[in-house]
Amino acid sequence: MNNKQHLNLHQRVVLELLWAFAWTFSVLPHWFKYHVVENVIFFLLYHVLHYRRGVVMTNLEKSFPDKTHEERQKICRGFYLTLAEMFVDTFNAAHLHERKAKNLFRMSEDRMHDFIEKNRGRDWIAMTAHLGCWEYCAFWGYYDTSRTVMSVYHPLHSRVIDEFYKRLRHCPNTETVPMKECIRHYLHNRTKESDGKKYAIGLIADQNPPLRPDSHWFRFLNQDTVFFDGAEKLALKCHLPVYFISMTRVERGCYDVAVEMLYDGVEEVAPNEITGRYVRRLEREIRENPDLWLWSHRRWKHKRPHDTH
């Protein structure tokens, strides 16, 4: 949909000014963005604003009761550096090209080639999380031009910011689809053969979903937790393989990418097993790199009813 159809004049002006600022920022030297601006943002968030410090420390205390206060403080400080980096990453994506994208989101040509060949001719689901700069996952389209990357997202309340993020995610071979529409969108478009491309469906599955009577509870980071199960439902309905996408920071703003199969698309599994595999893999990733996860999110707002199993 064109911006002009749902943004008024004031909103369009604000959007273009924001985009101009982001584009100008994105062409600045890497060292300045990630070693000057990032440090300034960290100082403001951590030392001045104390942004959601109470939420972060509460989440860390409940997730890591075996760690000392000093250890949790160290993770907290590392998280705020990651959060500052995410602000820089966001604006840095305004001016993007293939070489820059592949430097920020790294996977060896051999590993990528093997993965593409293994999945040629079939759709697959990528399950990731709020780890590091998860927005970089949209860069997959720079590596695999044989398919369309469906980048599933939650629309934001601000129309201007929502449009801004959609522009940032508009990479080659990538389309952005709201979460509520992703299954219907995929089922409607998967059989179209006009361009011969298959789908890679990217889902960030660690958000806090609405609680349903049939919600399944998992033990995650020492707490009872519910997860979105849309990826599992789609995988079972359409016999799609499911992969966990992990990102490891190699330097500020740059990540190595790894892909691990959770479900092959044909295995007989028990209910909630695919989601359970994701939960266990995600927890392992968080325990290995705790400063990369989004601790400022109020993840555990729901409490498990006493009559559930």
| Rounded mean pLDDT score | 92
Instruction: Give me the side-by-side strand order of the main sheet.
Output: 1-9-8-2-5-3-4
Count of alpha and pi helical runs: 11
Helix content: 40-55%
Oligomer: single chain
Fraction of residues in β-strands = 15-25%
How many strands?
9
Morphology: globular
Q: Which residues sit in consecutive blocks of at least 5 with pLDDT less than 50? A: none
* SSE order: HHHHHEHEHEHEHEEEHEEH
Task: Please describe the biggest sheet, giving its number of strands, its sense, and whether it closes into a barrel.
Answer: 7 strands, mixed
Distance between termini? 44 Å
Strand pairing plus helix content: what structural class? alpha/beta
- The value of Rg in angstroms is 20 Å
Write up what this structure looks like:
The chain has 309 residues and is an alpha/beta fold. Helix content is 44%, strand content 17%. The chain has 11 helices and 9 strands. The chain has helices at 9-26, 30-48, 53-63, 69-92, 98-104, 109-118, 140-143, 159-168, 182-189, 230-238, 273-288, and strands at residues 105-106, 124-128, 147-153, 174-178, 198-204, 217-220, 223-226, 242-251, 254-263. It has a 7-stranded mixed sheet. The protein has a two-stranded antiparallel sheet with strand order 6-7. β8 and β9 form a beta hairpin. It is globular. The termini are far apart. The mean pLDDT is 92.
